Each structure stands twice: as C-alpha cells, then as structure tokens.
Protein 1
Amino acid sequence: MDLIYLACLAYLDPGDEMIISAGSFISARIAGTIMNANIIQIPTREYRHDLERILASITPKTKLIYLDNPINPLGTIVNRKELAEFMAQLPEHVLVVLDEAYAEYITSRDYPRGLDFYNQNYNILVLRTFSKIYGLAGLRIGYGFARPEIIQTLMKVRLPFNANRAAQVAAIAALSDTRHVKRSRQVNEAGKAMFYREFKRLKLFYLESYANFVFVNFTVDSSLIFDILQRKGVITRTVKEYGFPTALRVSVGREPENRRFLKALNETLAYLRISTPAAD
C-alpha cells in the first residue's frame, strides 16, 4: 500500500487525472485524492476491468492508471490477452500501477504476470505484497518493480527506513518457503469450493474468485448480515464504499473457520428470512 501512495505522490500533481475502476481497491482512490488529482472512475463490465473504456478515457492530463488484478473486493481478473492488448495501446505519458497482491494464489496460465510487461519495457509499476499468501500482514512489507527511471522517481519521495530490518528478513525467508505457499493455495482453493457450493445451494449471487476471498450478494442491506454474523463471532467485510450496498467480502480461512461462517450465515439468513436469489 505504501508503494501506491508513493506512485501517486511522485506522478500526480493537482488537476492531473488518475483512472481507476469503480470497485477497485479503495486505498488507491484515497491516495489519488490526497494528491488533489481528478479521480476518473470507470464502471466495471461484468464485474471486471473495462479496459476498452479505460483506454477511451485517457486524456493528456491522465498520468496514472491503477489496475488491481485480481480486483479487491471482487476477485475477478483480466486475462493475458486482454492486458497485452491494453498495454500495447497505452500512451507513453501514462504510468500503469499493476497491483498483483493476490498473484501467488493463481495458477491459471491465462493470468497475466506483470513481470512479462516489465521485461517488454512498458511504462508499468508492478506491486506485490507479503501480507496475503505469505501471512506477514503485521510486518507491512511488500515490493515493486519497474524500469530504473520509474524507481528513481519513487525514491525521490520515499521516506527513509520505511521497511524495518525484521520485516525484510522475514520477507526474504518467506520467498523460499514454497511448501507454505503451496499448502496455503490448496487450503484457499478448497475453502472457495466450499463457499461456492453453499452459496449456490442458498441461491445467492457470488463471483468466482482468483483471490483469498469471495464476493457474495444478498437482497438486503449487508450491514444487517454483517452485524448478526459479528455477534456470532464471525467477521466479514461490507463493501458499501465500493458501490455494493448489499454485498459482503468473505475471506477464506481454514476448514473449521469456513464451516463456522457457513453455519452462522445459514442461521442469519433464516432469522432474516432471506432465501431469494440476489443478482447484480
């Protein structure tokens, strides 16, 4: 998240434009707003980045485009072909910030890797984090890669000592712990499958996710469901600030935690008498 802020600080002046999908990670929008940039929010198409519309929205004032792939909190992606065509049409004056926070969860060959676009010398800053599959969220450590001149620009606005030694040591060790990554990916896939089966049985609208959470929609204000679940000891996430007032983002946990959530959800829906399908 620190690199998102640094990118906005380095590349945005008041009045510049930053393009972001409506429904994307809200911290990027906040960072652009802090810089007094004009935030151009592009509606998603079928809950995915509308890359054609993003391209069409670029003006001489556009300095930065933020793409989270997968989108947080939707869990959807754009594929390799779509992103390649998008990058090939991008004007040179625009920097793409490609946030791959959940990339390690994805095994699909159709998932585009930012490293490929970096190797092709595109104007791109690729972000990764140790807060997700590596489980180091409390250490607040991540990394990014880009062309040398982009990194040099970011270094001009970076505060010194923004990553402590303990976090750096843990991050380096985590990179070699392939067994943990593989096991976490397996647990995540099994948990998502469990959620999908139950959401389908309950006739709830949900999105198949490439991340470690699932977006699920209801027919009532999601705060009602959130509050009841919380009283039952289960914490989810409302996503009203993303434009989805009746949806929750549910993180995937270990099997006992997933079962506890589903049991609490069934009890909550029965209490609220919610049983009808919730489409978009």
Protein 2
Amino acid sequence: MGELYVVSTPIGNLKDITFRAIDTLKEVDLIFSEDTRITKKLLNHLGIKRRIQSLNEHNEIKKTPKILQQLSQGKSVALVSDAGTPLISDPGYCLVKQAREKFFNVIPIPGCCAAIAALSVSGIATDKFYFHGFLPSSELAQLKELDILAQRKETLIFYESVHRLQSTIGHMIKIFDGDRKAVVCKEITKLHENYFGENLTEIDEFIKNNPKKIRGEFTIVIDGSKQKQAIIDRKKMDKILLELLPEMPIKKAVKICVMVSGLSRNETYKRAVILKSLQT
C-alpha cells in the first residue's frame, strides 16, 4: 500500500524548508497542493521538476476517492498547502481522515506553522493554548464566537486577514476588554516581518496610526482570561440579564440583576452591553 505524506513548507522564508521535506517531494509519485502555482515556485526554487495536482477546499471531497485509489495501487503521495503545515486552517482533513480510516500510512513531515512560531515569540504563556484560526466573517457571528472564548484560561491564537484586522481587534476589545495582553505577528519570516502591541488597546491604536504598515498576513496571540469564576458567575448573570434586557433599558436591567444576584455592578453593566449587542 502507498503512503500519504503531509509535508510542511515555508511560511515565507524559503530557507525554512527541511531536508526531509525536500527529499520527500523529490521521491513521491504524486504531489497534491492547495495552489499549484505557489507550490510550483517552491519546487522550481528547489530544482525539483514534478507535475503538481490541485487539492483545495473546492475539490477535496471530489478528489479524495481518486487519491485513495492511487494509494491502494501503491503510489506515494505528498500533500502540501500554500504555506506552513497542511490542514491547519488549510485543506486536507477529508483526505487524511479517509486515508486513516482505510488504514493507509499517513506520515507527517514536520516544519513551519505560523501559529506555533507566533506563540513562541509572543511572551504570552505557552504551556496551554487554544488555536482557533479564522473567526467568522459576519460581525454578529464573530462577536458570539469571541464571547464563547472570553473566559478560556489558555492563550488564544487566531489568524486574520489584512482587510478584517482592525474590525476584529475592535470586537476583541469589546468582548475581552482593551487591557487584555496581546500581540500581533505580521508576515512571520517574510521581508516585512513585524510584531506589535502589548495589549488589545495598544494594537488598536497602532493599526489606526499606521495604516500603511497594515499589510500582509497576521497571527494574533491573546492572553487567557485571568478572572476567577468565583468572583463573577457568568451563567447566573447571563440568565438574569437575558430575561430583563428585552423588557427594559440596560441601566434598569443592571440594577435589578445586581440587587438579585449580588454580583459586581461594573461587570454586570459590561456584560449587559455585550448581551444587548448580540441580540441586535
């Protein structure tokens, strides 16, 4: 039976390719990539003359059975993405899942990953972390997703595009508060590599004051929540506020919630504003 190699490639600096990745790309029978044009540039740089076939989010389901057939015939297959490690916010899950279900050997060829590279230089806790990737595109869906993550204790890692960076940071400030420790990692390993921000407010100000520098690809690393559940019982607070907010103004709802629950007025008001925005 053939083997499927999940091959990590550079995320910017072509010198970051591993010897093992080069050997694998030279030796396999077939190479499937997210974007054949980008992979072709990499192979040309490495002096590897090979035909590349596409496997992306639009054709993965259709192409997976054909690749599995090639594996059953004893062919060796390499899977690569545009940059970094395949399947991490990139296509390949369907193929790998089905390959393993059919007991083919699936072998990682480790290398670059923007999320891990960003975390390693962020100065934020690395012992426990949660990788989220890209948030939803719509404002309401993004706010709801961030609200779910707000109380997580682990370091949070997100990917974001240049066009949405400013609005996403704004939403993070709204949900997490501006003083939450955070850093934005821009164009990791590339020519215009840069790291900015000590917290979300500082990042927001940098973006507003330096629009010409906000280009490329971004990884956002954010400190986990430091709040103790004993101090603020969010479930209790939400239950009361969700009953009151549709029936009365925010100030009145907050006042009643504080009287009934004994929770902090400050935190209750902040929470009420967030819940109100999620309802509209």
Protein 3
Amino acid sequence: NFLQTDAAINKGNSGGPMFNLAGEVVGVNTAIFSPSGGSVGIGFATPSSMAKNIIAQLRESGEVRRGWLGVRIQNVTDELAEGLRLDKPRGALVAAVTEGGPAEEAGIQQGDVILEFNGRDVTEMRRLPAMVAETAVGAEVDVTIWRRSAEETVKVKIGELEADQLAAAPTDQRQEEVTPDKMESLGLALGTITPELRTRFELDEDTKGVIITEVEEGGSGAEKGLRPGDVIVEVDQEEVSSPSEVVEKVEKAKSEGYRVVTLLVFRQGDFQWVAVRIDQS
C-alpha cells in the first residue's frame, strides 16, 4: 500500500518525509519507477498511517515486532466461493495452518475462510497479512471465519513473526492400498497411495490422501492445472482416503445441484485449494 506521487524522489531524499501543502508528514519516501534511475515523476511513499506503528516501536524498544497468525492463505476466486458456498468472493482461504502457531491454538483449520480480523473486513486475501503484521504481539483479537457454510468467531492471541517462521504446517498422514478409479465428471484417474506410486511420484512417507494418476486432456481437472502426482486430501472440506470417497462426494455435490467442488491438493510439499467444475454430462 503506497502513496503515488509526482514529487521527485532521488537518492538524497529516499527514506525521508513526504509533506503535503500544509507542511504535514503524510508518508515516507520509498521508491520510484524509472527506466534510467532518475526521477520521471512516478514515485511511491509508505503512508504515515503505516509508519506510525513502526516509529513507536523503534522509539520504545529499538526494534520492530510484527504480528503473526500462523497460516498460509490464498485468494477466494469466483469458483472457490461457489464451491465453499460463500455469497461472493471475499476473505482469505486458509491453505495450511502452522503447527503450534496462534491460529492452530485458536482452532482455525485448513479450509476456513477468514472474513474479519479484529473487527475489520478482509475484502481480499492480500489485506490480511498487513492487518496481522500491524497488530501488537500478544494482543487478543476476534477472527470471524467461514466454515462449512456458516460463520464462526474465534479469539486469537497474536504471536510474533520470526525470520525463520514456516508458512506451511506438516500433518500426520498414513499410507493406503491401491484402488484405481476413473472419475469422468472431473476428468481424473485416481488411486490410493502404494509404495510403488509413492516412489513413482516421489511422495514423502507420511503423505496421505488420494493420488491423481492420470488427467484427461480437456477435462475439468486439466483446466485447473491438476496433474499426475497431485494428492487430493479433502473434497468440500471433508477428508478422503480412497478414490471411492472422492467419487461419492463429487456425485453428492452434483446431485445437490452444485456446479463445482473444492479440492484440497497437496503438491511438492505445499497445499492449495482448487475449485473444479463438475462435468454435468
């Protein structure tokens, strides 16, 4: 969040104050856009409203402490909103929760959508990190989440963001026997995780879920970038451990008139939510 200005910002004044015509400091000069390195009238300043908290911390303790929630988040797209039964795209979707972090201790779960933080609406995903970082370490705040088609409010005690803090959280996972299955409605071939598939797709020993073994070209899964080796962990926020469970939950959503399902996908050590269109044919 920057203020854009046509005031000249160069090496001598970058980092200094930006004044308005009343002589008030409204920002801290930060950066310019320039093809040559000199000012071309496109500059950016950090708003004073953001700088105040940092200045106060530096005066008090000589260091800046930023709030930490302990989640990895992603945008709520139109299709994800439909799959999550939200009225419109809003909030921040929790893709992973850090073990032992403030969010986990407060009961926030993978698949929750954070709608409000400390009384402020989270209109889009990118707003949340700034809200959390600006919150005092140790403060207790109310967080409103969307979980399984209903709103809930939890109280979170904000932690301190450390340089080595991990965004994603490991989970306890188990191995399954193979039961390959085709799912035409999503254009996927599925299987349970066997030692052979684990070796073939280089999966960790503790990975669990249902593995995608084939992706039909032009199918719904291919449209969303799913590929062989991806592991489906949840369907519509419910865990799955066999191909039949995936098929059952997709068919249930289809029978209830839903056009998309949300899949929690594990790929190369990371989680992401994907909304996949159900082929009604």
